[in-house]
Amino acid sequence: MVTKSEISARPGRPREFDTQAALDKAITRFSEYGFHGTSISDLNACLGLTSGSIYKAWGDKRGLFLAALDRYIALRAEAIAACLASAHSGRDKIESLLTHYARLSCEATGLTGCLVVETAVELSLADKEIATLIAAQQNRREAQLRRLIEEGQLDGSIRKELDPANMAKLLLTLQQGMRVVGKTKTDAKRMLGMVCELMQLL
After folding, report:
1. How high does pLDDT run on average in the chain?
2. Residue 156 is part of a domain; what is its CATH number?
3. Best CA proximity match to 37, nearest among 58, 65, 56, 59
4. Distances in Å between the alpha carbon of 193 and those of 55, 81, 138?
5. How many degrees, rounded to 5, is the angle at CA 59 between CA 115 and CA 72?
6. I need a labelling partner for 189 at 20 to 30 A (CA). Which of 2, 19, 75, 179 fits?
7. 55 and 97 share a domain?
8. Which residues bind DNA (predicted)?
């Protein structure tokens, strides 16, 4: 059996695969089945890579997982920025963001789930490094929501008596809850209805 140290000791060769494409496949696998529900052999089949290639590129399964999580967070940030770019008022931006999450939570993408939510549930208690990464991501999303609420209060599109901190926590909880419910196969009508009800609170 070839060990990871033996693989590392071999002369370096150019990688013959698309790292980002491999990470995208890993994101889907880990989102659907979790870290513990995914074996190296599962990753071999999913990514189309040998164990040696995985070890050489990422060290081990955890290294691959961390790289996939980092890419997922970066991709989500880009998607959210694009989602907000076309909206104007604070209220419109929040509605656009919630609608985006509602659509993500439906059908095929909903069944795949959210890697951040999956990781928070599965690994936050067992892995301090990963717990710190997830907490930082949650704090960023919550802070962004708070800024949007405050923006809406300044531009008059959101009620001024609302507490921005508490409402941001509520919105974040709704977003994550949508991704959890989406794993049980829900439809767009139900998810968009939730967004409609929540927007009335603003």
Report:
1. 90
2. 1.10.357.10
3. 65
4. 45, 23, 24
5. 20
6. 75
7. no
8. 39-58
Q: Kindly state whether residues 26 and 121 are assigned to the same domain.
A: no
Look at residue 188 in the predicted model and tell me its pLDDT.
86
Full-model pTM: 0.87
Distance CA 147, CA 157 (A): 13
HEC profile of the chain: CCCHHHHHHCCCCCCCCCHHHHHHHHHHHHHHHCCCCCCHHHHHHHHCCCHHHHHHHHCCHHHHHHHHHHHHHHHHHHHHHHHHHCCCCHHHHHHHHHHHHHHHCCHHHHHHCCHHHHHHHHHCCCCHHHHHHHHHHHHHHHHHHHHHHHHHHHHCCCCCCCCHHHHHHHHHHHHHHHHHHHCCCCCHHHHHHHHHHHHCCC
CA distance 161 to 168: 14
Residue 105 lies in a domain: yes
* pLDDT tens readout for residues 153-185: 999 999 999 999 999 999 999 999 999 998 888
Name the residue range of residue 170's domain.
Answer: 86-202
Mean pLDDT of 5-26: 70
Is the distance from CB of 49 to CB of 22 less than 8 angstroms?
Answer: yes
Pull the structure tokens for residue 105: 């939570």
